Amino acid sequence: MTFTLDLQKLAHDIKLWGLELGFDQVGITDCDLTHEETRLESWLAKGYHGEMEYMARHGLMRARPSELQPGTRSVISVRMNYLPPVAKVAETLDNPAHAYISRYALGRDYHKVLRNRLKQLGERIQQACGELQFRPFVDSAPVMERPLADKAGLGWTGKHTLLLNQQAGSFFFLGELLIDLPLPADQPVEPACGNCSACLQICPTNAIVAPYELDARRCISYLTIELNGPIPEEFRPLIGNRIYGCDDCQLICPWNRYAVSSPEADFSPRHQLHTPELLTLWSWDENTFLKATEGSPIRRIGFEKWQRNIAVALGNGPASESVLHALLEKRSHTTELVQEHIDWALQQLQTKQIADNKKHARLIRCIYKGLPEHS
């Protein structure tokens, strides 16, 4: 290919086309992630990836885009906001009878939305160039999305290891378009976390083991989505009513005061998943689950893990006869994995019932004797 194009103008046009396609920001960088290789090797050596063997499968190719797509000379990095206009975060997290689903998963599967837009962007660039090799990626291949977005100037890496943007917080998706043109690269932005450590302190399971270092094996998103077997008992009470993912480290971040809600219809919450009652979700059979999660990122965890997660959340909620009955009723009609978590939930709830009964008995005695309630 001979380069007779005005690459500076093309880079400018690419950003305009990206905005026209619905991306909230577009940046450009080269393929050099050499500075990430040592960090990646150390993270894998510590086993922080847990059962996500695909993180180690391709070795250092994750830090070498040009090996993944031969001929790649530039990476176009994009971000798209996903926070719904009415997020109902506190309303859901504060109600233990309701299920909390990470806000990114309330609408249509973002992989499909972003990949389709990136493909359109690649085709638009191809039209302008006459000849172009490109390949879109959205969290679907060994590509280090966050470091590339960092280099492309879309934000900086926060202490929780997510990308932060001063004008948009962190509630956005990332995607990449690998192309064989040497486009002018954008400059990274200066990190702005300062001395803040709110994300480290808020994490329910202490998964952020140090600034900029995440032990995924402890992360609630990993435990409820990636982990295939039993959830370790030490983490079950800490999960609360989170049945798919966790947003705590983002919710506490001061920069998310500037988070921008998305007008994208595909990311609008599905009614049955926005603030659902745990017992309603627990009553679903597999066909209902598959129908309700069609086109949703939630479907990929499968019905068994869905039930496993809800059982834990029910065990962390209030002890009532309806919950106990619902757990017992389903126990003989599910898998061994789910049965294990049902048994744990029942034990938790029965312990709460005993404690509540003792408290009630103490209150009655205090009232009968005319003593202060705390006596």
Description:
It catalyses: epoxyqueuosine(34) in tRNA + AH2 = queuosine(34) in tRNA + A + H2O. Belongs to the QueG family. Its EC number is 1.17.99.6. Keywords: 4Fe-4S, Cobalamin, Cobalt, Cytoplasm, Iron, Iron-sulfur, Metal-binding, Oxidoreductase, Queuosine biosynthesis, tRNA processing. The protein is of the alpha+beta class and 375 residues long. It has one domain. It is built from 17 helices and ten strands. The strands form four sheets. Strands 1-2-7-4 form a four-stranded antiparallel beta sheet, with helices on both faces. A two-stranded parallel ribbon has the order 3-10. A hairpin with a 2-residue loop joins strand 8 and strand 9. It is elongated and about 80 Å long. The mean pLDDT is 93.
Note the topology:
Elements (H helix, E strand, L loop, with lengths): L6 H14 L4 E5 L4 H12 L8 H4 L7 H4 L5 E8 L7 H5 L6 E2 L8 H20 L4 E4 L7 H7 L4 E2 L5 E2 L7 E8 L18 H5 L5 E3 L2 E2 L5 H7 L9 H4 L2 E3 L3 H4 L19 H4 L3 H5 L3 H7 L9 H15 L4 H11 L4 H34 L6
Parallel strand pairs: 3-10
Antiparallel strand pairs: 1-2, 2-7, 4-7, 5-6, 8-9
